[in-house]
Amino acid sequence: MSAICTHLDSIEVTGLPAEIAGCVDCLAIGSTWVHLRMCETCGHVGCCDQSPNRHARAHFHATSHPIVRSAEPGEDWSWCFVDEVAFVLAGT
Ligand SMILES: [Zn+2]
Ligand SMILES: [Zn+2]
Ligand SMILES: [Zn+2]
């Protein structure tokens, strides 16, 4: 698609689940979040960098899954933690 991110072949999951309860890691510890991000390699739902626990970023560090997408209504952009670049996947 583009040369800005070299990790597009790590993408396995692009569609959001029909129902998102919230950040799975915040729910586990009883915390709260600001925005939700979904890992596009395994579908893990975590919270954004404005959230207190930054679980999407923690998931990247734990798993090396590089790309998340916004799980907010109406938002379809993706973000690569390695390249630190945002982009929109074609056809999703
Ligand atoms: Zn990348
Ligand atoms: Zn969280
Ligand atoms: Zn993942």
Describe the fold and architecture.
- The radius of gyration is 12 Å and the shape is globular.
- The protein has two helices and five strands.
- It starts with 23 loop residues before the first helix and ends with a strand.
- It has helices at 24-29, 55-63, and strands at 36-39, 45-47, 67-70, 77-80, 85-88.
- The protein has a five-stranded antiparallel sheet with strand order 2-1-3-4-5.
- Strand 4 and strand 5 (85-88) form a beta hairpin.
- It is α+β, with helices and mostly antiparallel strands.
- The relative contact order is 0.24.
- Bound molecules: zinc ion (ZN) (3 copies).
- One zinc ion is lined by residues 39, 41-42, 44, 59, 63, 65.
- One zinc ion (ZN) binds at residues 39, 41-42, 44, 59, 63, 65.
Q: Which helices and strands occur, and which strands form pairs?
A:
Blueprint: H1 24-29, E1 36-39, E2 45-47, H2 55-63, E3 67-70, E4 77-80, E5 85-88
Antiparallel strand pairs: 1-2, 1-3, 3-4, 4-5
This protein binds zinc ion (3 copies).
Gyration radius from CA atoms, angstroms: 12 Å
- Describe the biggest sheet? 5 strands, antiparallel
The order of strands across the largest sheet is 2-1-3-4-5
The proportion of residues forming helix, as a percent range, comes to 10-25%
- List the ions, cofactors and other small molecules found in this model: zinc ion
Structural class: alpha+beta
Which segments are poorly predicted (pLDDT under 50) over 5 or more consecutive residues?
none
What is the first-to-last residue Cα distance? Answer: 13 Å
- Please state the average pLDDT score: 94
The portion of residues forming beta strands comes to: 15-25%
Number of strands: 5
Put simply, the count of helices is 2
What is the N-to-C order of secondary-structure elements (H for helix, E for strand)? HEEHEEE
Gross geometry: globular
